[in-house]
Amino acid sequence: AQKVTQAQTEISVVEKEDVTLDCVYETRDTTYYLFWYKQPPSGELVFLIRRNSFDEQNEISGRYSWNFQKSTSSFNFTITASQVVDSAVYFCALSEKWTDKLIFGTGTRLQVFP
Amino acid sequence: DTAVSQTPKYLVTQMGNDKSIKCEQNLGHDTMYWYKQDSKKFLKIMFSYNNKELIINETVPNRFSPKSPDKAHLNLHINSLELGDSAVYFCASSQDKQGFGTEAFFGQGTRLTVV
User: Fold this and answer.
1) Contacts of residue A50 in chain B, CB cutoff 8 Å?
2) Residues of chain A contacting residue B100, judged by C-beta atoms under 8 Å apart
3) Which residues of B84-110 are buried (b: 16+ CB within 10 A; e: fewer)?
4) What is the pLDDT of residues B39-97, one digit of tens each?
């Protein structure tokens, strides 16, 4: 069965600190996709990144980077030099080829203080 | 132009009423969804339509009835509203089904409060 676990309910950091948001997933499928979404205080859900199960390359986009490790079923998200605008709830999500559902983790609330 | 738009943004209503939330996407996507986000921020899929055909119905009470008049619209009608229906409802769309790993684009959400 699909499952996404984000064990960190809330993280608080001071601006310019690096922070890593953890995501652990469970799936029986060999073909699956992992996502991160951001939900700022305004409430909308913003797509950040997608990885497929066959591509374990890490990815960097500006201050954001993602570490995908199949061996530990993890897809962690790191924000370098955090900024106040990074304050949001971040969701990790998983979709499987055969179930056609996007399953979300419970989210991690990140608060960045000036 | 807003890619996925929902109306209304806020909805306050009494128990027992019937209400509808409308959703439209102008992205030309084939698949549309309704998600429910509860007070603890937990997001759960309710329905998924692909080319106007219902493909996912996640054990949602039959008081909830989605309707897709065409590929660009997916409305949600809720009968006999209950207090527990209070939540934020998100509409979303994607180019293809989630099984193909396409990212979903979300509307701004409709905050439903049942009093």
Assistant:
1) 101, 103
2) 97
3) ebbbbbbbbbbeebbbebbbbbbbbbb
4) 999 999 999 998 888 888 887 899 999 999 999 999 999 999 999 999 999 999 998 87
Q: What are the structure tokens assigned to B20, written together?
A: 């509808």
Contact B24, B72 (CB under 8 A): yes
| CA A99 – CA B83 distance, rounded (Å) | 31
Note whether A95 contacts B: Cβ–Cβ < 8 A: yes
Question: Phi, psi at residue B98, to the nearest 5°?
Answer: -65, -25
Question: What's the gap in Å between the CA of B111 and the closest CA on chain A?
Answer: 10
User: Residue A49 burial by CB count (10 A; 0-12/13-18/19+): exposed, middle or buried?
Assistant: middle
- In chain A, which residues have their Cβ closer than 8 Å to the Cβ of B40? 106
Please give the Cα distance from B58 to B50 (Å, whole number): 15
Provide the token pair at B87: 């939540």
Peptide bond into B61 cis (omega under 30): no
